[in-house]
Amino acid sequence: MKLCSKPIFVSALLVCCCAGVQSAGPATAATPAKAANHTVLLDIKPDPWQVRRKQVIDLVAVIQKSDYKDQAAKEKFDKILANFDKDFVSITPMEAMDLQRIYYVPLSKPVEMESNLGVVVALAALGWYDALRFADASGRAEIQDNESFFLRAFTAPGSKSLDDVVAFLKDKPLEAARAVKTGTDAARTVLTRVHYDTQWPASYGLLRSQCALQQEQNCKRPVPLAQDQWPAAFEEAVATTTRYYRDNSKP
Predict the structure, then answer these.
(1) Cβ contacts of 26-32, under 8 Å, gap ≥ 24
(2) Distances from the Cα of 130 to the Cαs of 99, 156, 165, 169, in angstroms?
(3) % of the chain beyond a pLDDT of 70
(4) What pTM value is reported for the model?
(5) Please, which of 46, 110, 179, 224 could form a disulfide with 117 given CB 3.0 to 4.6 Å?
(6) 193 — phi, psi (to 5°)?
(7) Under a CB-based contact definition with an 8 Å cutoff, are residues 31 and 24 in contact?
(8) Closest CA to 154 of 202, 200, 119
(9) What's the chain's Rg over C-alpha atoms?
């Protein structure tokens, strides 16, 4: 997909992206935390995927600031989109949800709702599978609540995407069910060729904040789920994702 003209998310673009990154403490260099009735800054080094996530946001900022006239920046963003189109498991599901929110969903046509939902569901299933394996309960809560992971693709400020997908789920239950099934099937199909950092959910949670408060050099990460439990975790992720998009049951 080419960013060849000024899309509808001009005013919402940086708001939605930056808010998402800042809501997850590990994505920023300094995160505020309250202690002893005052605010302190936690110096948290971002993980590589978070650095890449911020680079995309900064790139979009350049494009917007130039009023979409910076050809070099636009070409870089086009390349990011092209790489995602070619291989959607080359970046973490959170980064991919950002792209859905920034670009694909707001610019899509109503007729594309079913296919869009299928892609979002696939990303959600893969991402929640990662969260079940590599995040603790506090990390999963942060991913779900602070990042609005499951709804992220449809919540760009200024767009009607959330209203549209809710209407689609309500008014076209057969198509919606088909989209969800397509998405979870796609997630199952690509499991063997995922090559993003599947431990990205470990960037969230209380352990990360506690480490920064204590100024430790080597931070503890959540204990990963035993590998023999991974197949069951994937089925749980599929079931959770299916329920969420069919009846809005919270993970």
Answers:
(1) 26/50, 26/203, 26/204, 26/208, 27/53, 27/54, 27/203, 31/209, 31/212
(2) 19, 24, 25, 26
(3) 80
(4) 0.82
(5) 179
(6) -125, 15
(7) no
(8) 119
(9) 18
- The 3-state DSSP class for residue 147 equals coil
Sequence-distant (6+) residues with CB within 8 A of 142 are 24, 204, 205
Query: Residue 4 burial by CB count (10 A; 0-12/13-18/19+): exposed, middle or buried?
Result: exposed
Phi, psi of 147 (to 5 degrees): -95, -10
Phi, psi of 162, rounded to the nearest 5 degrees: -65, -45
CA distance 177 to 169: 8
pLDDT tens digits, residue range 85-111? Answer: 999 999 999 999 999 999 999 999 999
Residue at 233: amino acid letter: A
Mean pLDDT of 57-62: 92
User: Is residue 35 classed as helix, strand or coil in its secondary structure?
Assistant: strand
Place of tokens 């990390």: 139
Dihedral sign (CA 156, 240, 220, 198): negative
**Amino acid in position 110:** P
Q: How far apart are the first and last CA of the chain?
A: 32
